[in-house]
Amino acid sequence: MSPASLQEAKRQYDQDGFLKVQQLFSGTRLTEIEEQLTLYTEQIAPHVPADDIVYESESLPNGGRAIRNLWRMENHSRYFRELAKSEDVLQLVAMLVNGEPVLMGVELFAKPPRVGSAVPYHQDNGYFNLTPPDALTCWLALDASSLENGCVHYARGTHSRGLWPHKATNVPGNSWGLAAPPDPATLDEVPGILARGDAMLHHCCLLHRSEPNRSDRARRGLLLVYRGAHCQIDPIGMANYKAAADAIRARAKAQ
Fold this sequence. Notes:
This protein is an alpha+beta fold and 255 residues long. The chain has one domain (3-254): Jelly Rolls. Helices cover 28% and strands 25% of the residues.
C-alpha cells in the first residue's frame, strides 16, 4: 500500500473500528494456505493440547463433531507462524496498532455448515486486557462470508467507548461475553460480507458477534491476532478473566 492509502486506511479504521481489505491473499498463496490447513487438521490437530481445539456441540449426521476453533496454531505449525510475519500484512498492522506489531495468535473459526454455532456480542480485549488497547484481529475469509453462513457483524464506532463489563458464558470457544446485551437500536451494525481471500481487521475493543451457519456452505475464518509492542496487561482484568476461565474448565471436567 502507498503512504497515502495507508493513511486513509488508518483514518477509516480509527473512525469505524474495522477495515475491510479486498484480496489480502489470493491465487497461489490462498491455495497454499488451504493445503496447509488441511495438513494441520489431519496431522497436527489430533495431537494438540485439549485447550487448543474446540469442537461444535451439535453432532454431525455421522455422529462425529466438527472442529469449531483451533487456537495457538503458531505454536504447532511453522507455516502459520511464518504466514503471520508476511510483510504486506505487518506494514498495515503496524500503522493500525500504533507501533511494532507482536503476534498474539493464529486461530481458526470454522463455523461448519448447519452446525456452526453463534458467537455472542463481545470485545476481544475482554480476553486480552491490554492497555492501551492497541491490538487487532485480521480475519481472513477462507470461504465467502455471507448473512446465510454466519458472517461477523461489527458495531461501528463502539471501540471508542472502552471496555464494557464482561462475564463468563456457556459458549464453548467463546467463554467471555458482555455482562448485559446492548440495545440494538443504539448500534450501527455492519455485516462483514467478504469474498474468499478478503480480510476484515477489527480493533480489540470493537463490539462484534455472529449468527449460526444456517447454510450448506462452510464459513471458515483464519485469524491473525496482533498487539502493539508497547501494550501492557491489566493485572486485575486478566485475573478476573482467568478466574472465570478456570471455573469453566473445572465444570467441564466434572461433567
